[in-house]
Design goal:
The structure holds two protein chains of two kinds. Chain A has helices at about 25-30, 65-70, 120-125, 145-150, 165-170, 215-225, 250-265, 275-280, 320-330, 360-380, 380-390, 405-420, 420-435; strands spanning about 45-55, 60-65, 75-80, 105, 110-115, 130-135, 150-160, 175-180, 195-200, 205-210, 230-235, 265-270, 285-295, 300-310, 340-345, 395, 405. By secondary structure, chain A is of the alpha+beta class. Chain A is globular. By secondary structure, chain B is α+β, with helices and mostly antiparallel strands. The longest helix of chain B is centred in the C-terminal third of the chain and has 20 residues, at about 445-465. In chain B, helix 16 (about 425-435) packs across helix 17 (about 445-465). In chain B, strands 2-1-5-3-4 form a five-stranded mixed sheet. In chain B, strands 10-11-16-12-13 form a five-stranded antiparallel sheet. A four-stranded mixed sheet of chain B has the order 6-7-9-8, with no helix packed on it. Chain B folds into three domains: about 1-180, Beta-grasp domain (Ubiquitin-like (UB roll)); about 185-235, Uridine Diphospho-n-acetylenolpyruvylglucosamine Reductase, domain 2; about 245-465, Uridine Diphospho-n-acetylenolpyruvylglucosamine Reductase, domain 3, CATH 3.30.465.10. In chain B, strand 18 and strand 19 (about 390-400) form a beta hairpin. The chains are: A alpha+beta, B alpha+beta.
């Protein structure tokens, strides 16, 4: 047998820092022995749950007839909004995320009811049998439409440093631009899944694939009218999360738990991929607009920017995510005067959520797009535009007034320029392109 | 009775439901949870297993498949290998230990699938041969890792090859070969049949009762896993010897409908390299090992990748039924969105075309991802140019109409003209006159028209040798 962890006993004085140590589960990963939620053995009589979803994006449920669902083969129970015993909204910071639709439909594919059956296939088939009457309303699906309707999940706010408008009015050159940034699905390879088991003392044991077990514990307790100490949440490991299992794992653990309490049976709820992709939030799409005043040599003097976040139908974590985009708009560059506005637009789509970088990448991308445009309009090498705008060695601060020392940054960029042979490669490419008759890439 | 070999033992199963997937059979029927479900639609590769079969020379050859969209009954007369079967009591398989040492797993959920894909690649290489980065990358192109570990994964695949050891010891291998030889190849049960010949198929088709035909199942099984449809009775075409042949008579080649993309790739690499290049961009190894030529034509998808190529090759399609065969030009076969001229009780038998003489075959696939993606546009053209004049041109276009189309009006306008007379504006006008593509999530109508024109210009100028560089 290979002893993957033997090198812990390294002779160097810094061990184990710097040693190559295998992942604690690596052996189990490669042999398929690592168990995820879907691999757990279930107790006798365990049921499988499936979610019934809305088929409109916005409107009201006029009637919900679950009789065909209830009488479908293998079905042991259904759960609708009116059956929820206690807390019905699992919004992590602010309300806005109902476990099931009451009457208001907030997005296409929203959870409308839960059905539990003896097999997963029976549950999934039954979930398709609901008869629903809707009053359909026109949905807001884009940032532009949200702006027109002034539909927000949270109020707008801004970072302000100096008097950017005044500086812009006398700047040598003013450049405006915009960038549109798409969303992104987490696609954690293990989809959302939870198993809830009623305990002998009236509590619940919940196995869940989540990045936030304590929040799941609290929410399960609240939706089931239990004390926190009556709910035990266990996360053995996750098959990927990337932010998609921070708040988005809770609804399924909560629904499985309510059903488990209701029927006093173990209940497993695993979202099939197509449902996982429609029922859970994604990375926030953003639109960014900026107006920047620059000197003739490309130095930024002032900027006003608006970052429009597409938050979907509820606040979820969007307040902090749009903040993070605002904090990162400067990226590595000194903005002597700046107004950075962050909008939290509401669209009638699944609520967007945490995702690797948490708004940071979108803010940086917008800032870099601005730098690129300055270079293009001034006919400057984009590296020069960036170098001249890097945070200086002293005396600068961010748009949120934190002093920044740019010495490391300056040194790093200089070294990158040299080690990549940037200038030589660039002129080589220019020479090569000039000799081509056809337009190749770019 | 379904019989297969697993862990050096023969396993027998009485009737399994026809639409039971191999993944559900493993996970739910047998309780073997090492193989994971990531998407249940053949996209992510978490469910990858290897199936071993005897090739023509009696050797054991492994192929990776997506167990989530493979009927369990396809196990018949095969050896099953999953990630949980590779390690011994006290030791890991070289692929497994390389993944551990190279830090090639993070969340671990995709790992069993990667292990099997890597295993399959190495089993197919000669002893001691280290796969190139390209080969290793190609072998795992059908496995999604979301923790971003492809660097270490590819390194692990190459590292494993250095201490490669065969899965079976020599004695075990003899035993497995013997067990496989003992299994009757054909299979016929009330729910599922795998006839071995067209005669056996004819008998089954003439029996009473309804059935559906399944070839590779890479499309059909999605109706089971995604639309939750039942398929109570299936007749599989995967073992019918007449459909698995690639035959050549003079300059004419006939490819059986049951030929898989992988099998076709091996042939095309020698005889039709542009097609071989395209095949590497259709699905993944797992899909190419199951998906067939006939299936790609039978579904009649407007974005199927092979129909445009075969249209450009001016192929004939041969249809078979218990009552006889008929042949027609492929261009006439597609009559509407996912509609063909095939009759009930008829199957696609084969496709035939002439090998290229002086013409050149140009194929371009436009898709968002390089691997394992659906075409936004498939451009194929068979072009003959002499002294700057287009002497012949046959087109095949996918993604620009409700059916794969040869766009004969465009070809007609080009034949006899000088390459020099065409520029982007003129071609865009010609293309716009005869094609009305739709806008969808893969591409806008305008993008499709622009691409078709640009690829056409590129193709005729390249073949015309106008630009040397």
């Amino acid at each position: 047998m290979k002893t993957e962890t033997a090198n812990i006993n390294s002779s160097t004085s810094t061990a184990p820092v710097g040693d190559s140590i295998a992942h604690e589960s690596a052996r189990m990963h490669v042999t398929g022995q690592a168990r995820y939620i879907d691999d757990l053995e279930l107790p006798k009589g365990a049921l499988f749950a499936a979610v019934g979803q809305t088929t409109i994006a916005r409107g009201r449920v006029l009637s919900l007839d679950l009789s065909a669902v209830q009488s479908a083969p293998g079905v042991e129970g259904v759960l609708r909004f009116a059956d929820l015993p206690a807390l019905t909204d699992v919004g992590p910071v602010f309300a806005g995320d109902p476990l099931l639709v009451d009457t208001e439909v907030k997005f296409h594919g929203q959870a409308l009811f839960l059905v539990a059956a003896r097999t997963e296939l029976e549950a999934r088939k039954a979930a398709l049998l609901a008869r629903v009457e809707y009053e359909v309303e026109a949905p807001i699906l884009t940032i532009t439409a949200a702006r027109e309707a002034q539909a927000r999940v949270r109020p707008v706010h801004a970072l302000l440093k100096g008097d950017p408008e005044a500086v812009l009015s006398r700047a040598g050159r003013v450049i405006s631009g915009q960038i549109s940034i798409g969303g992104q699905e987490h696609l954690y390879l293990e989809g959302q899944a939870a198993v809830a088991l009623p305990t002998e003392d009236g509590g619940l044991q919940v196995f869940c694939s989540t990045q936030h077990p304590s929040e799941v514990q609290h929410l399960v307790a609240k939706v089931c009218a239990l004390e926190f100490n009556e709910v035990c949440v266990e996360v053995r490991r996750m098959g990927g999360g990337f932010g998609g299992k921070e708040t988005q794992a809770a609804p399924w653990a909560c629904l499985a738990s309510v059903m488990a309490k209701r029927l006093n049976r173990a209940v497993k709820l695993r979202l099939p991929r197509s449902q996982d992709m429609t029922l859970t939030g994604k990375r926030h799409p953003f639109e960014a607009r900026y107006t920047v005043g620059v000197s003739e040599d490309g130095r930024i003097e002032a900027v006003t920017a608006t970052l429009d976040g597409d938050c979907g139908c509820s606040p979820d974590l969007s307040d902090a995510i749009v903040d993070r985009a605002m904090f990162h708009f400067d990226n590595a560059y000194h903005l002597p005067a700046a107004r950075i506005v962050g909008e939290r637009w509401r669209t009638d789509k699944v609520s967007n959520t945490a995702f690797r970088g948490f708004g940071g990448p979108q803010g940086m991308l917008a800032g870099e797009a601005m730098l690129q445009q300055i270079a293009r309009e001034l006919g400057q090498d984009p590296l020069d535009t960036r170098l001249i705008n890097l945070y200086p060695k002293s005396g600068a601060s961010t748009p949120y007034h934190q002093p920044v020392d740019g010495e490391q940054l300056q040194r790093m960029m200089k070294r990158l320029e040299e080690s990549s042979a940037y200038r030589a490669r660039r002129s080589e490419i220019a020479r090569d392109n000039a000799a081509q008759k056809r337009v190749l890439r770019g | 009775m379904i019989q297969y070999v697993h862990r050096n033992k023969r396993v027998s199963e009485a009737d399994l439901p026809a639409d039971l997937t191999l993944l559900d059979y493993l996970r739910n029927s047998l309780g073997l949870s090492a193989t994971k479900e990531g998407c249940a639609s053949g996209d992510c590769g978490a469910c990858t297993v290897a199936l071993g079969a005897l090739d023509e020379s009696g050797q054991l050859v492994y192929q990776s498949v997506n167990s989530c969209i493979c009927p369990a009954t396809e196990l018949h007369a095969r050896e099953l290998v999953t990630a949980a079967d590779l390690h011994g009591a006290g030791s890991l398989h070289p692929v497994q230990s390389a993944f551990v040492e190279q830090h090639a797993s993070q969340c671990g959920f995709c790992t069993p699938g990667f292990i099997v894909s890597a295993f399959t690649l190495l089993e197919g290489l000669p002893e001691g041969e280290i796969p190139t980065e390209e080969q290793a990358s190609q072998a795992v192109a059908g496995n999604l890792c979301r923790c971003t570990g492809y660097g270490p994964i590819i390194k692990a695949v190459q590292t494993a090859a250095q201490e490669k050891s065969s899965y079976h010891s020599q004695t075990d291998k003899q035993q497995v070969l013997e067990l496989l030889r003992q299994i009757e190849p054909g299979l016929s049960s009330t729910a599922f049949a795998l006839p071995e010949s067209l005669d056996a198929l004819a008998e089954l088709m003439l029996e009473e009762g309804s059935f559906e035909i399944i070839a590779g199942g890479t499309d059909l099984m999605l109706e089971v896993t995604q639309r939750l449809q039942s398929k109570p009775r299936l007749i599989g075409l995967s073992r019918i010897v007449e459909l698995l042949k690639i035959e050549r008579q003079g300059q004419r080649v006939s490819v059986g409908a049951g030929v898989s993309f992988s099998q076709l790739h091996a042939w095309a690499a020698v005889h039709l390299p542009p097609l071989a290049e395209l095949l590497l961009h259709i699905g993944s190894d797992q899909i190419r090992n199951r998906g067939t030529l006939g299936g790609n034509l039978g579904t009649a998808s407007p974005i199927g990748d092979l129909p445009p190529v075969l249209l450009a090759l001016d192929a004939q399609i041969r249809l078979w039924s218990p009552n006889g065969v008929r042949e027609l030009p492929l261009a006439e076969f597609f009559v509407g969105y996912r509609k063909t001229l095939i009759h009930k009780n008829e199957i696609i038998h084969s496709v035939s075309f002439e090998l290229l003489q002086s013409e050149e075959l140009i194929i371009e696939k436009v898709s968002k991802r390089r691997e394992d993606d659906i075409s936004a546009l498939l451009f194929a053209a068979c072009i003959g140019i002499n002294a700057g004049t287009i002497e012949s041109i046959k087109l095949g276009l996918g993604g620009v109409a409700a059916v794969p189309t040869a766009a004969p009006e465009i070809s007609a306008a080009l034949v006899g003209t000088a390459v020099d007379t065409w520029d982007m504006a003129a071609l865009r006008q010609l293309v716009g006159l005869h094609l009305q593509p739709m806008s969808d999530l893969r591409a806008s109508a305008e993008y499709r028209l622009h691409c078709t024109s640009a690829l056409l210009l590129d193709a005729i100028t390249r073949v015309g040798g106008k630009y040397e560089n």
